[in-house]
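Morning!

As promised:
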Amino acid sequence: MNNLTTAEKEHWDLVIQPKGGLFNLNLKEVWKYRDLMWLFVRRDFTAQYKQTILGPLWHLIQPVFTTLMFLIVFGKIANIPTDDIKPIFLFYMSGITIWNYFSGCLTATSSTFVTNAGIFGKVYFPRLVVPLSSVFSNMIKFGIQFLLLLMMMIFFSLKGFTMYISITWLIIPLLIVMMAAMGLGLGMIVSSLTTKYRDLNILVGFAIQLLMYATPIAYPLSYLQNKNYASWIAWNPLTPVVEAFRYALFGKGTFTINSLLYSALFIVITLIAGLLLFNKVEKTFMDTV
Amino acid sequence: MNIVIKIENLSKQYRLGTVGTGTISHDLNRFWHKVRGKEDPYLKIGEENNDSNKGSSEYIWALKDINFEVKQGEVLGIIGRNGAGKSTLLKILSRTTAPTIGSVKVKGRVASLLEVGTGFHPELSGRENIFLNGAILGMTKQEIKKRFDEIVDFAGVEKYIDTPVKRYSSGMYVRLAFGVAAHLEPEILIVDEVLAVGDAEFQKKALGKMKDVSTNEGRTVLFVSHNMAAIQNLCTRAMMLESGKLLFSGQVNDTITYYLKSAVQREHTALLERKDRIGNGAILFTGFELKNSLNEGVNFFQTGGDFMMNILFNNNVEVIKELKIALGINNYLGDRILHLSNEMTNHVFRNITGKQGIIKITLPKLPLKHGRYAITLFSTVDGNIADWIQDAFYIDVEHGDFYKNGISLSNDQGYFLLEHEFYLTTF
């Protein structure tokens, strides 16, 4: 017994035990591995376009074509109004740009454990580095698409579109962080749950598509007024973010400070739940993945 | 000296079988016990991990109650058969999975090499991969930059450093990957059989680097291998795992001897019961024993070690005037690679009257490479075939340090090892 007590007093740099504390997130360690995070971001970005001719241009082609498709289907065929944002090309493109960021983050982080099982099984590093790097590499893609959107706005302003430049632009970074946090939080929950049961992984793909239609991407929230399912769409925590994004860019959108606060609260809770679950699973997921 | 690793009551339980609907009911039950503050009901059941016990339990203990300490600067070799728990131990030490019970305490920075080239991306260049792999192994960008030239030099890939690694030859790939790993500077290095890759020259380089790391720089190394030659050459202490338990720990040679002796008795059909034999039955082979040089029973031999075998037989005639015995040794492909016979060595046995006998066969410094060999027994009594059994039994040969240099010859370099000399004349 005596030996035990003296041993207890010794200083150990690392103690490996069956379970860590629930709230022991080890963010300090994540910071130590920040170089690795940037290297993952670089890898994601450069490796994706090796041996392609158009390279990063693909980031531009995809939103442009989606926008055109939306414009034809929702704008021309279904004739859904667009909050008087003219040209409607910009209405669709703005929605698609911010939506792509959310869905990109969610898709990438939700498969963290399964796709990285090879590396995770061989080397230890704070697992959180991987989903965080996905969020950042998607942010670069978002940056490119956002630049394209701005260029389009400038292009249309030459043809009579009046640029709406105001103080509201300042909330855009906050909205981006909210989208990232939501994608990350949900993605971490899904990736933690899928280490054992893969069912959710199958669900994620089409859940994202369904969720897009439950978010005012292809239509403005104002279009739903007086419709009985409008409140369902309004309760979607992503709705205020998208509406606020359009408001910031064009001065038109339906949201209140309260609805935005509701979104923020929802997102923070999701993110914390995601972090805790992720932290709980990361130690032993190799046994079940 | 300082204790840098302390392992207490370390145990790890695995669930067998596939994940399915059965898993969720166990999970729910476990959760329900936890909610009520009770112990995990599945921790009590597991069986010890033993291939022969194909038990009823769905849970097995891959490791059970492991306790040991490692001092600073020690090079500890860990040996054991497949499934003994070596890999599980390494996984826990390198934090890729957590133990079920017990703890590991460590002083200093740990780096584990369970594989070389973890995280290498085929599309990225050698340069990009050095940085990526280094960072995965825990180096900062600065540290990698400082050692970049050394790594490239060690791997010998200067010319191709900006080429995607998917265009590398497998040798270059492995050298680059090991180069990064070898230039880590952790206080404790955990190494799985990464040395089993690459050509002989590279193995020597890798072994040399590891030796350097431990002796000159005072680092602690944990080394798991099947390669007894490497263990003998590198380690200062060794321990043996069997069925998830720590069975033996001590001097390297003692542990290896223990390992060779202790393995579970191999399965074999009793020779006497074999029906597929040819001959008049004047004598019948009844069994065999494998021995080491101290006449202790063993289960396998080591390349470069002593080979001793007893063949037991029954004599069914009054007097044997002349007994010839031959052993044919086939490799795993079924090729006859060796023929041992007492006729060739001028030791034909004569005038035998005893009802039972033992034939002892010795072969100093076994030249066979590691692998499994089939032994065919053949005998003639007074010129007639008495007993002939094809593939009567198998022997296993493990890696050994034939040339006393710690290197084992790679598999595609022939079947035998022989003493030889090289001489140089210049003019």
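The CA atoms of residues 45 and 140 of chain A lie 9 Å apart.

Hope this helps with the figure draft.
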